[in-house]
Write a structure and sequence with these properties.
With about 70 residues, this protein is α+β, with helices and mostly antiparallel strands. About 35% of the residues lie in helices and about 20% in strands.
Length: about 70
């Protein structure tokens, strides 16, 4: 199988089912010159808020993730 490593918020972590069960995760691929990071969210609203936060000058993806957590 194929596995992916996502950076996720605390609320997404708490909403995920136990290991071995299927989960639907909305993802966002953050691309920069030297970075490819995957961020995962339990619902689309949280993902859209993450995208909105990263569009603010001075807020990168890791800070946006901490804000949402």
């Amino acid at each position: 199988g194929i596995g992916f490593k996502f950076k996720i918020t605390l609320s997404t972590y708490e909403a995920l089912p136990s290991i071995g069960n299927l989960a639907k995760v909305y993802c966002y691929l953050y691309v920069r010159e030297d970075i490819l990071d995957l961020f995962g969210f339990f619902d689309i609203v949280e993902r859209n808020m993450f995208i909105a936060l990263t569009n603010i000058t001075g807020i990168g993806p890791n800070l946006a993730l901490r804000i949402l957590s």
